[in-house]
Protein backbone atom coordinates (compact mmCIF):
# COMPACT_ATOMS: atom_id res chain seq x y z
CA UNK A 1 0.00 0.00 0.00
CA UNK A 2 1.31 3.43 -0.87
CA UNK A 3 1.76 6.03 1.81
CA UNK A 4 -1.03 8.55 2.24
CA UNK A 5 0.54 11.86 3.29
CA UNK A 6 -2.58 12.63 5.34
CA UNK A 7 -2.05 9.62 7.60
CA UNK A 8 -1.25 10.40 11.23
CA UNK A 9 2.47 9.96 11.89
CA UNK A 10 1.61 7.56 14.70
CA UNK A 11 0.73 4.96 12.06
CA UNK A 12 4.50 4.34 11.65
CA UNK A 13 5.20 0.64 12.02
CA UNK A 14 1.60 -0.57 12.28
CA UNK A 15 1.82 -2.53 9.05
CA UNK A 16 -0.51 -0.23 7.10
CA UNK A 17 2.25 0.31 4.60
CA UNK A 18 5.73 -1.01 3.93
CA UNK A 19 8.70 0.94 5.28
CA UNK A 20 11.35 1.41 2.64
CA UNK A 21 13.50 4.27 1.32
CA UNK A 22 10.53 6.09 -0.17
CA UNK A 23 8.30 5.96 2.88
CA UNK A 24 11.21 6.76 5.21
CA UNK A 25 12.01 9.87 3.15
CA UNK A 26 8.36 10.93 3.34
CA UNK A 27 8.26 10.38 7.10
CA UNK A 28 11.47 12.32 7.59
CA UNK A 29 10.12 15.28 5.65
CA UNK A 30 6.75 15.28 7.39
CA UNK A 31 7.61 14.37 10.98
CA UNK A 32 11.37 14.19 11.48
CA UNK A 33 11.45 17.39 13.53
CA UNK A 34 8.19 16.80 15.39
CA UNK A 35 7.89 18.84 18.59
CA UNK A 36 7.65 15.66 20.70
CA UNK A 37 11.41 15.21 20.31
CA UNK A 38 12.24 18.58 21.85
CA UNK A 39 9.56 18.27 24.54
CA UNK A 40 11.04 14.95 25.60
CA UNK A 41 14.71 15.87 25.71
CA UNK A 42 14.29 19.17 27.54
CA UNK A 43 12.10 17.60 30.24
CA UNK A 44 13.84 14.33 31.16
CA UNK A 45 16.68 15.88 33.15
CA UNK A 46 19.69 14.69 31.20
CA UNK A 47 23.16 15.08 32.70
CA UNK A 48 26.37 15.66 30.70
CA UNK A 49 27.68 12.19 31.57
CA UNK A 50 24.49 10.24 30.77
CA UNK A 51 24.62 7.25 28.44
CA UNK A 52 21.36 7.38 26.52
CA UNK A 53 19.67 4.86 24.24
CA UNK A 54 16.83 6.06 21.99
CA UNK A 55 14.74 3.11 20.84
CA UNK A 56 12.95 3.72 17.55
CA UNK A 57 15.05 6.81 16.90
CA UNK A 58 13.69 7.44 13.41
CA UNK A 59 15.66 10.24 11.74
CA UNK A 60 17.65 10.90 14.90
CA UNK A 61 16.28 14.29 15.95
CA UNK A 62 15.87 13.41 19.64
CA UNK A 63 19.23 11.64 19.72
CA UNK A 64 20.99 14.70 18.32
CA UNK A 65 19.31 16.94 20.88
CA UNK A 66 20.39 14.56 23.64
CA UNK A 67 23.96 14.42 22.34
CA UNK A 68 24.20 18.20 22.68
CA UNK A 69 23.55 17.77 26.42
CA UNK A 70 25.41 14.51 27.09
CA UNK A 71 28.76 15.99 26.09
CA UNK A 72 30.74 13.79 28.49
CA UNK A 73 28.57 10.75 27.83
CA UNK A 74 27.24 8.94 24.78
CA UNK A 75 24.01 8.63 22.82
CA UNK A 76 22.95 5.66 20.72
CA UNK A 77 19.88 5.63 18.48
CA UNK A 78 18.45 2.39 17.12
CA UNK A 79 15.67 1.78 14.61
CA UNK A 80 14.61 -1.39 12.80
CA UNK A 81 14.25 0.47 9.50
CA UNK A 82 17.62 0.72 7.72
CA UNK A 83 16.44 3.69 5.65
CA UNK A 84 15.72 5.62 8.85
CA UNK A 85 19.24 4.97 10.12
CA UNK A 86 20.66 6.08 6.78
CA UNK A 87 18.73 9.35 7.00
CA UNK A 88 19.76 9.82 10.63
CA UNK A 89 23.42 9.59 9.64
CA UNK A 90 22.89 11.93 6.68
CA UNK A 91 21.37 14.55 8.95
CA UNK A 92 24.16 14.28 11.56
CA UNK A 93 27.36 16.24 11.04
CA UNK A 94 30.86 15.28 12.15
CA UNK A 95 30.68 17.39 15.30
CA UNK A 96 28.47 14.77 16.97
CA UNK A 97 31.37 12.59 18.10
CA UNK A 98 29.38 11.18 21.05
CA UNK A 99 26.49 9.94 18.88
CA UNK A 100 25.96 6.66 17.06
CA UNK A 101 23.09 5.19 15.05
CA UNK A 102 22.52 1.47 14.55
CA UNK A 103 19.91 -0.77 12.97
CA UNK A 104 18.26 -2.60 15.84
CA UNK A 105 14.96 -3.36 17.52
CA UNK A 106 13.63 -3.25 21.07
CA UNK A 107 13.36 -7.02 21.24
CA UNK A 108 17.08 -7.47 20.55
CA UNK A 109 18.94 -4.33 21.55
CA UNK A 110 22.50 -4.43 20.12
CA UNK A 111 24.15 -3.22 23.34
CA UNK A 112 25.85 -4.87 26.29
CA UNK A 113 24.24 -5.50 29.68
CA UNK A 114 24.05 -2.46 31.97
CA UNK A 115 25.51 -0.16 29.31
CA UNK A 116 23.13 2.85 29.49
CA UNK A 117 21.87 5.13 32.23
CA UNK A 118 18.68 6.14 30.44
CA UNK A 119 16.54 4.68 27.66
CA UNK A 120 13.85 6.55 25.76
CA UNK A 121 11.17 5.55 23.30
CA UNK A 122 9.29 8.44 21.68
CA UNK A 123 6.08 7.61 19.82
CA UNK A 124 7.42 4.14 19.11
CA UNK A 125 6.38 1.68 21.84
CA UNK A 126 3.27 0.69 19.88
CA UNK A 127 5.52 -0.25 16.93
CA UNK A 128 7.46 -2.88 18.89
CA UNK A 129 6.84 -6.41 17.65
CA UNK A 130 6.69 -7.75 21.22
CA UNK A 131 6.61 -5.12 23.96
CA UNK A 132 7.06 -7.71 26.72
CA UNK A 133 10.35 -8.90 25.23
CA UNK A 134 11.29 -5.29 24.62
CA UNK A 135 10.81 -4.37 28.28
CA UNK A 136 13.03 -7.27 29.32
CA UNK A 137 15.71 -5.98 26.94
CA UNK A 138 15.40 -2.44 28.26
CA UNK A 139 15.94 -3.70 31.80
CA UNK A 140 18.95 -5.69 30.61
CA UNK A 141 20.79 -2.75 29.08
CA UNK A 142 19.98 -0.25 31.83
CA UNK A 143 22.45 0.25 34.64
CA UNK A 144 21.23 -0.13 38.25
CA UNK A 145 18.87 2.76 39.01
CA UNK A 146 18.70 3.55 35.30
CA UNK A 147 15.66 5.36 33.91
CA UNK A 148 13.23 4.31 31.19
CA UNK A 149 11.18 7.07 29.55
CA UNK A 150 8.13 6.32 27.40
CA UNK A 151 6.65 9.24 25.44
CA UNK A 152 3.53 9.43 23.31
CA UNK A 153 1.72 12.33 21.74
CA UNK A 154 -1.55 13.44 23.30
CA UNK A 155 -3.66 12.64 20.27
CA UNK A 156 -7.25 11.92 21.32
CA UNK A 157 -8.38 12.83 24.81
CA UNK A 158 -6.64 10.54 27.29
CA UNK A 159 -5.55 8.06 24.62
CA UNK A 160 -2.49 7.81 22.38
CA UNK A 161 -4.59 7.63 19.22
CA UNK A 162 -3.46 4.13 18.25
CA UNK A 163 -6.78 2.32 18.63
CA UNK A 164 -7.91 -0.21 21.19
CA UNK A 165 -5.48 -2.56 22.90
CA UNK A 166 -2.97 -2.95 25.74
CA UNK A 167 -1.15 0.28 24.82
CA UNK A 168 -4.19 2.49 24.27
CA UNK A 169 -3.94 4.83 27.28
CA UNK A 170 -1.33 6.04 29.79
CA UNK A 171 -2.91 3.83 32.46
CA UNK A 172 -2.24 0.81 30.24
CA UNK A 173 1.43 1.75 29.82
CA UNK A 174 1.78 2.16 33.57
CA UNK A 175 0.21 -1.27 34.03
CA UNK A 176 2.63 -3.05 31.68
CA UNK A 177 5.57 -1.33 33.38
CA UNK A 178 4.30 -2.52 36.76
CA UNK A 179 3.90 -6.06 35.38
CA UNK A 180 7.52 -5.90 34.17
CA UNK A 181 8.47 -4.80 37.71
CA UNK A 182 9.72 -1.35 36.79
CA UNK A 183 9.54 0.99 39.78
CA UNK A 184 9.08 4.69 40.61
CA UNK A 185 6.58 5.09 37.77
CA UNK A 186 5.10 8.53 37.17
CA UNK A 187 3.02 10.28 34.51
CA UNK A 188 3.63 13.85 33.33
CA UNK A 189 2.21 16.08 30.60
CA UNK A 190 4.04 18.73 28.60
CA UNK A 191 2.75 21.13 25.95
CA UNK A 192 4.36 23.46 23.45
CA UNK A 193 3.14 25.23 20.31
CA UNK A 194 -0.26 23.56 20.48
CA UNK A 195 1.17 20.03 20.76
CA UNK A 196 1.43 17.88 23.85
CA UNK A 197 3.03 14.68 25.10
CA UNK A 198 2.49 12.16 27.85
CA UNK A 199 5.84 11.38 29.49
CA UNK A 200 5.98 8.25 31.63
CA UNK A 201 9.05 7.81 33.80
CA UNK A 202 10.18 4.59 35.42
CA UNK A 203 13.27 3.02 36.94
CA UNK A 204 15.00 -0.27 36.32
CA UNK A 205 13.52 -3.02 38.49
Descriptive report:
This protein is of the alpha/beta class and 205 residues long. The chain has one domain (17-203): Rossmann fold. The chain has 6 helices and 7 strands; from the N terminus they run ααβαβαββαβαββ. The protein has helices at residues 21-31, 35-43, 61-69, 82-90, 131-141, 170-179, and strands at residues 51-55, 74-79, 99-103, 116-122, 142-153, 183-192, 195-203. It has a 7-stranded mixed sheet, with helices on both faces.
Corresponding CATH superfamily: Vaccinia Virus protein VP39
Can you give the mean pLDDT?
Answer: 86
Query: How can the largest sheet be summarized?
Result: 7 strands, mixed
Supply the number of structural domains: 1
* Topology pattern, helix = H, strand = E: HHEHEHEEHEHEE
Looking at how many chains there are and whether they match, the oligomeric state comes to: single chain
